[in-house]
Amino acid sequence: MNLYPLKFSPIYIKKMWGGTRLKTDLNRNIEEDNIGESWEISINNNDISLISNGIYKNIGLDVLIKKFPKQLIGKDFNSDDRFPLLLKIIDANQKLSLQVHPDDKFAKKYENGNGKTEMWYVLSSSPKGKLYIGLKDIYNKDNLKKVIAEGNLEDYLNEINVNEGDFFFVPPGTVHAIGGGLMIVEIQQNSNITYRLYDWDRVDNKGTKRKLHLKKGIAATKFKEFEGNNKVEYSKITDQYKKEILCISEYFVTEKISIKNSIKINNDKFSILVCINGNGIIYYDDNNTEKIRSGESLLIPAALKNITLKGKMKLLYIYIPDNIKKFKDKLLKKRYKKNL
After folding, report:
1. Are the C-beta atoms of 159 and 109 separated by less than 8 Å?
2. Residue 340, in any domain of the structure
3. What is the C-alpha separation between 224 and 241, in angstroms, rounded?
4. Of 105, 124, 267, 318, whose CB neighbour count within 10 A is largest?
5. Are 281 and 292 in contact (CB under 8 A)?
6. Are 213 and 240 in the same domain?
7. What are the pLDDT digits (tens) for 329-340?
8. How far apart are CA 233 and CA 340, in angstroms?
9. Residues of the chain with confidence (pLDDT) below 50
């Protein structure tokens, strides 16, 4: 077994609302315009990430997981298990549709799939960048159905002004949309089930409106008031680094690590690194190395221990906790500060 930090060839998806920031801001070699999504790490239907570095270059991530399930993903993972996460970068030149994703129970019943819990981290934003998360003054499905039928849904959206570095946890059942002028890292369950409730009355180049999914979308919507987010839950600062816990859920934990010099990481399961600023070097297995630079995403196999990151950079560090309560207790024992 010769596992190492894995890089991938992005899967680019053209969208009517897509832009050019992946090319201009992240220096991606993209010829087409209107690329709305870059699937960074994926095993979702036929969208399979291909490894772009090392001895497994051009091998599908699904193939490597079949070969090394526990060493790559973790000791509790079997080769027939579904890869749990999907990582994207969204480039929204225009607003995305107003949509909702189902939870696990709904998705299993109606789609034979997983629900979609997700989190957004804002990489860049225009001066008037906005997100739409949650509804105002709509408290049940009948009320939502009536507002949609009357064409007034825009009046009930919870509109949030955003800036670079903001982050938001979006539970399933939450009505939401990404506004124009934003580039966002999207961390989510491995699901692409989306129900479109409203599309701003726009049409494609043939004059056709995109399909809505009102019956399932309204049924999947939950009416819990949006709690805000954009708040660091726990933090730890040393002379070498700053760690901020942005999100804790049963599906994933997301940390933001700002490295001044170096930091060691060690997990029993796989983890994902997204470099959002700067560059550095990953040291693993007796001083083997892999470079990482701004805009790159990597998967760290579970079998790699005592990983050291060196350089001046900021990263999103994503992994799956075994138990949320034990995880939080462990943070306090490791001298994290709980931010009230």
Report:
1. no
2. no
3. 36
4. 318
5. yes
6. no
7. 999 999 999 986
8. 8
9. none
Q: Give me the pLDDT at residue 267, please.
A: 83
Return the pLDDT at 221.
98
pLDDT of residue 287: 82
Beta bridge partners of 76: none
- Quote the tokens at residue 24: 């201009």
> Which range marks the domain in which residue 293 is found?
234-334
Question: Would you state the pLDDT for residue 329?
Answer: 93
Give start and end residues of each alpha helix (H) in the chain. Answer: 21-24, 61-67, 69-72, 104-111, 141-149, 214-220, 324-333
Residue type, 83: F
Together in a domain, 249 and 204 = no
Domain CATH code at residue 50: 2.60.120.10
pLDDT confidence of residue 90:
98
Q: Which is nearest to 142 in space by CA: 219, 195, 200, 196?
A: 219
List the alpha helices (DSSP H) in 99-224. 104-111, 141-149, 214-220
Do 178 and 242 have their domain in common? no
For residue 203 the two structure tokens come to 């049409």
Rounded to whole angstroms, what are the CA distances from 294 to 9, 15, 164, 205, 311?
A: 15, 24, 15, 35, 12
Rounded distance, CA 187 to CA 71, Å? 23
- Residue-wise pLDDT tens digits, 120-137: 999 999 999 999 999 999
pLDDT for position 1: 61
List the catalytic residues.
196
User: Could you tell me whether strands 11-19 and 297-300 are parallel, antiparallel, or unpaired per DSSP bridges?
Assistant: unpaired
Q: Which residue has the tokens 């090394």?
A: 68
